[in-house]
Amino acid sequence: MGISYLRQCGHQAGSSMGHIQIHKHTFLSFVERVSLFFFCLALISTISSCSGTQISPVALYVTRSSPLRPLPPLHITITDKQAVQQLYQAIYLLPNANSGKRTCLEDSGIIYHLTFIQNKNTKEEINVDPSGCLILTTTQGPRQENPAFLDLVMKIIHVSPLIPPY
């Protein structure tokens, strides 16, 4: 900075020896800047990997569990790509489940485990609860099921009713 610039900005020149008085600014050292860059890069990578990316499934594998009552084993594979993608997309159209107070129906304990498969290495597991609070669990958080969605599940996996009679 020249003396004329300092005078324009209201600063005075230093002592009679011609030194210019400059305010000290805190600057990050090169090492600190590089460290900050890599920290931000790691943070962005972590955030993007946690956000959950939807897949484009071509098949669906379905099982069922019930800790409250014995049910016959269920193992279904659906390979109708259009039906599989219709169900998968319907899941992400469901509203996020409200974490507040809710009124729940009688819970049968039955859970349908849906494994959507894109290829050998890419799949997403989603649990459908056809009773109780009707909460569906996904990698992107819980979703609130509704009767229309449960009807679609029954239609695509060919299981009706989803809660078998005793």
Low-confidence stretches: 1-25, 40-51
- Net shape: globular
- Mean pLDDT equals 78
Largest sheet: 4 strands, antiparallel
Tell me the domain tally: 2
Helix content: 25-40%
Element-by-element helix/strand order: HHEEHEEEEH
Beta strand %? 15-25%
| Widest β-sheet, arrangement of strands | 2-1-3-4
**Distance, first to last CA:** 87 Å
Q: How many helices does DSSP assign? A: 4
Total beta-strand segments = 6
Rg, nearest Å: 30 Å
Helix-strand category: alpha+beta
By oligomeric state, this entry counts as: single chain
Keywords for this entry:
single chain; 166 residues; alpha+beta; four-stranded antiparallel β-sheet; 4 helices; 6 strands; 21% strand; globular
Give the helices and strands, then pairings.
Layout: H1 3-8, H2 30-50, E1 59-65, E2 75-78, H3 81-93, E3 111-119, E4 122-128, E5 135-138, E6 141-144, H4 147-157
Antiparallel strand pairs: 1-2, 1-3, 3-4, 5-6
Helix pairs in contact: 3-4
Any overview of this molecule?
Helices cover 31% and strands 21% of the residues. Helix 3 packs antiparallel against helix 4. The strands form two sheets. A four-stranded antiparallel β-sheet has the order 2-1-3-4, with helices on one face. It is globular, with a radius of gyration of 30 Å. Mean pLDDT is 78; it is low at 1-25 and 40-51. With 166 residues, the protein is α+β, with helices and mostly antiparallel strands. The longest helix has 21 residues, at 30-50. It has two domains: 3-50, no CATH class; 59-157, no CATH class. The chain has helices at 3-8, 30-50, 81-93, 147-157, and strands at residues 59-65, 75-78, 111-119, 122-128, 135-138, 141-144.
